[in-house]
Amino acid sequence: MSTFRKLAAAVILLFIAMIAGLNIYLLCSVNDSGIYRVEAKRLADRIEETGSTDISGFPHLTGVYSGEQLYRSDEHYLIIEAGGTPYRVEYTVSDKNRTILAVDLVMGALFLLVILLLIFIRRHIVVPFGRLNKVPQELARGNLSVPIPEEKSRLFGKFTWGVNLLREKIESDREKELSMQRDKKLLLLSLSHDIKTPLSAIKLNAKALARGLYKDEEKRRSAAESINSRADEIEHFVSEITKAASEDFMDFEVTHGEAFLSSIITRLSDRYAPQLSVSGTEFSIDSFDDCILSCDPDRLAECLQNLVENAIKYGDGRRIGLSFDKMDGCELITVSNTGCSLEEKELPQIFESFHRGSNAGKVQGNGLGLFICKRLMSLMGGEVYADIRDGCFCVTLVVKMA
């Protein structure tokens, strides 16, 4: 806020200085009074040549007199001589004060507009923004109860509404995460307790067999079957633990709708074409037949962005391309990049969560990009698959057409 006040004060002072400087310039500038001398000289030449005293072609001259009226005037005049006869030539002088007044009126109107504009910016942008500047910090600290003031301004109304939605989403995700962690903890505690019973039975039967307590073959066989049965129970519990640990940890929301393929590709091109051009990477988009896709436009764009980001991180930076095809009522969108160093045997695992290929190296990442793509495409009724063609890594999204 203080910065804006300083900026506004500087603008106002600069404007006042401009007005003062313009007034000084107008006061000190040479007016057009010298023009009448030129016109008087031209009139004298005409009188000598033609004898005519017509002044219709001289806008700054108002009259020509000679004889007895030579010096009878209260107007501005000068004396010229033509053909040996003196003439009194009256002329007009521009009113400098009126010019300065007109300029001051125009500059005053502009100054008033600047003041109104600064007031508008302060009231509708600076002040609302000042009320919101602490909200992101509080959200980052985990304070989800921070008040978010409502704004009726069209400039900030949607922004505050969006921030409020963000807070609600963070709060909802936190509650889901806590609930999930609590349920998993209870499940693990319950399963670990249940494992103890068959484990104890296994240990008792194993000790009895080891010490030769069972002399009868039938009892030894029964003890072995009991160990096998209890091991099956433990295997079942381990499967439950594995299942609980591998449950989806991310909640995806998809809004089904329709979108033109061209609009999705335009969004992608506008975002990455300038960036890749600067880095020297060729970004090619093959020609395609525009069609209407049955999808969530934002989620489909997110999938394509994930694929392009992967191509930037794991490719060799020479070329990233988009190609298109149609098959069985679906649009196939393929993102490819040169410099693939992934082995084909790893392709079945690349869509698993937290999986990182052998080509990851020191590239930062968490192994979720392709996993997210697969989940989103599945929720939109589509599919995604990857393959390697001529040293290029290719990922294809299969999107249903409307």
Short précis:
It contains nine helices and ten strands. By secondary structure, the protein is of the alpha+beta class. It folds into three domains: 32-93, no CATH class; 140-247, Helix Hairpins (Orthogonal Bundle), CATH 1.10.287; 257-400, Histidine kinase-like ATPase, C-terminal domain (Heat Shock Protein 90, 2-Layer Sandwich).
What global shape is seen? elongated
Strand order of the largest sheet: 5-7-8-10-9
| CATH fold assignment of the largest domain | Heat Shock Protein 90
Largest sheet composition: 5 strands, mixed
Q: What Rg, in angstroms, do the CA atoms define?
A: 44 Å
Helix content: 40-55%
Parts with pLDDT < 50 across at least 5 consecutive residues: none
Which oligomerization state do the chains in this entry correspond to? single chain
* Beta strand %: 15-25%
Number of E-state strands = 10
H/E series: HHEEEHHHHEHEEHEEHEE
Report the CATH architecture of the largest domain: 2-Layer Sandwich
What features would you describe in this structure?
The protein has 402 residues and is of the alpha+beta class. Helices cover 54% and strands 16% of the residues. It has three domains: 32-93, no CATH class; 140-247, Helix Hairpins (Orthogonal Bundle); 257-400, Heat Shock Protein 90 (2-Layer Sandwich). The protein has nine helices and ten strands. Helix 1 (2-28) packs antiparallel against helix 3 and helix 5 (157-211) runs antiparallel to helix 6 (217-245).
Tell me the layout of helices and strands.
Layout: H1 2-28, H2 35-50, E1 61-65, E2 77-82, E3 85-91, H3 96-132, H4 135-140, H5 157-211, H6 217-245, E4 257-260, H7 261-279, E5 282-285, E6 292-295, H8 297-314, E7 319-327, E8 330-338, H9 369-379, E9 383-389, E10 392-400
Parallel strand pairs: 5-7
Antiparallel strand pairs: 1-3, 2-3, 4-6, 7-8, 8-10, 9-10
Helix pairs in contact: 1-3, 5-6, 7-8, 8-9
